[in-house]
Design goal:
With about 100 residues, the chain is mostly helical. Helix content is about 70%, strand content about 0%. The chain is built from 7 helices and no strands. The chain has helices at about 5-20, 25-35, 40-45, 50-60, 60-70, 75-90, 90-95. Helix 1 packs parallel to helix 6. It is globular and about 30 Å long.
Amino acid sequence: MELKDPMFELLSSLEQIVLTRDDRAAELLFQRQQPAQPEPQRLREMTGMQVDEFAKVMGVSVSSVKSWEARRTRPSATAQKLMKLLHANPYLGRQLLE
């Protein structure tokens, strides 16, 4: 029996809610204009967060974020889902810090 990561499942559900709220045509247009997975540094800068704030929102260490930004390692699937949500709603990061 395959065990599923509950955080990944939660983020997948949130992603569906965020993306299905908007018109499907707008989603397709958005996907064509934006890369499938935003770069961590670009996303962090777009949201106006410092490295330590971004790490806190992502639930990882500062060194992990720096490693992602230097392209030494890749974010986990769960982190990638959260980054997609942050990309869709840049203000979500600030809300999570409160």
